Amino acid sequence: MEDILLTIHKLRTSFQIHGKFYPAVDGISLTIQKNEVLAIVGESGCGKSALALSIMGLHPSDRTLVEGIIEFQGRNLLQLPIAELNQIRGKRLAMIFQDPMTALHPLMIVGRQIEEPMNVHLTLSTKEKKHRTLQLLERVGIQNNEQVYQQYPHELSGGMRQRVLIAMALACDPVLLIADEPTTALDVTIQAQILELMKDLQRQSQAGILLITHDLGVVAEMADRVAVMYAGEIVELAPVRELFYNPKHPYTRSLLQSLPSATGQKQKLHVIEGIVPAIEHLTRNGCRFASRIPWISNELHEGEPILHEIAADHFVRCRCHEHFYLPAERMGDESNASITAT
Ligand SMILES: Nc1ncnc2c1ncn2[C@@H]1O[C@H](COP(=O)(O)OP(=O)(O)OP(=O)(O)O)[C@@H](O)[C@H]1O
Question: Does pLDDT of 337 surpass 60?
Fold first, then answer.
């Protein structure tokens, strides 16, 4: 168990809306090991970013309540004084943000920005910092590193900016990286390059990665294990192959059904109708997915759904999956009976 980097236990992150707190992350427990890529997937609004920012301690404390345990290398981050948290953030724990344009300072050359975490965490001379930064730029695949060191973010392409952000995250050799939709802002070819780069770097460094994405293609490419989130909860957790070949929870199955066919054949997408309810309107008792699969009767859901281990390392919430079918499957004609998203 010494390979466990992060243990999250019953994490609840609530936001204040009109004077009341509503959980966006609602009782999540997870672990991440050294050298493991754990993907968190789910559609917009299910709580992925709220989870990532909770781990990094980046929610404003006046409007957010973060409860539970986030144990990183044996210490509960939620109870650390800010000065001690700052010793960890940017050093052993680092984050790659979604949009490099907003994450980078527009008026500072990129070399200096990569050096910022080194200023805080490492005792290096100016020359050593520059040397390390040039090496980092090279590591993230930037050949003309001397030139890029001197450039401003707006002078670089989106893919180059994302490489710079990755270099910045790696500046102090983190053991755990949180990557929140790291390729969403990029076009498809550049996405593939950045994913390849992240995989290479991860192999070299043996770091753990918590990868947040709504893109199942990215999950298939990168992840060792996958946690599927719905309405603030984990509804399924499994090794990546098991999840893709043997999905159980109705939500996971609907996510996978909505992937276009790999053969390129035209087929209707099978997506379950509806969206994740807003946190202030969410019914929190019973199976949170029940309202989106009304053809499954109420008594087939658990009153208080828990995660069941249905195979080695494969967990599914609520027994409703045992009775679930897509109407298209029941009719035996997938091409006619699709359910479309709103
Ligand atoms: N600061 C905030 N104040 C109030 N509600 C918030 C705040 N941040 C997020 N929420 C709400 O919490 C829920 C989860 O949001 P979150 O951003 O974590 O979802 P997500 O899965 O990361 O979605 P996306 O993929 O769109 O980023 C949503 O209902 C969102 O509206």
Answer: no
In whole angstroms, give the CA distance from residue 214 to residue 44: 7
pLDDT at 332 over 60: no
Could you tell me the distance, in angstroms and rounded to a whole number, from the CA of residue 24 to the centre of ligand 1? 7
| Beta-sheet strands, E only, within the chain | 4-17, 20-33, 37-41, 64-72, 75-76, 93-96, 176-180, 208-213, 225-230, 233-239, 307-311, 314-317
Please check whether residue 258 lies inside any domain of the structure.
yes
**Is residue 220, in this structure, part of any structural domain at all?**
yes
Domain span at 236: 1-88+175-189+203-341
Question: Distance, CA 307 to ligand 1 centroid (Å)?
Answer: 23
CATH for 264: 3.40.50.300
- Pick the residue with more confidence: 209 or 342? 209
Q: How many helices (H) and strands (E) does the chain have?
A: 12, 12
Q: Facing residues of 37 across strands?
A: 209
Q: Which residue has the higher pLDDT, 198 or 109?
A: 109
Work out how many domains the chain is built from and give that number. 1
In sequence order, the 6+-apart residues with CB closer than 8 A to the CB of 117 are 90, 91, 94, 168, 171, 172
Asked whether 261 lines ligand 1 (CB < 6 A), one says no
Site to probe by mutation for ligand 1, drawn from 12, 16, 18, 49 as the one with most ligand atoms within 8 Å of Cβ, is 49
In-domain check, residue 108: no
- Tokens, residue 197: 């780069």
Dist CA 89 CA 174 (whole Å):
9
Q: Are 66 and 13 in contact (CB under 8 A)?
A: yes
Residue 166 lies in a domain: no
* d(C-alpha 209, C-alpha 36), whole Å: 6
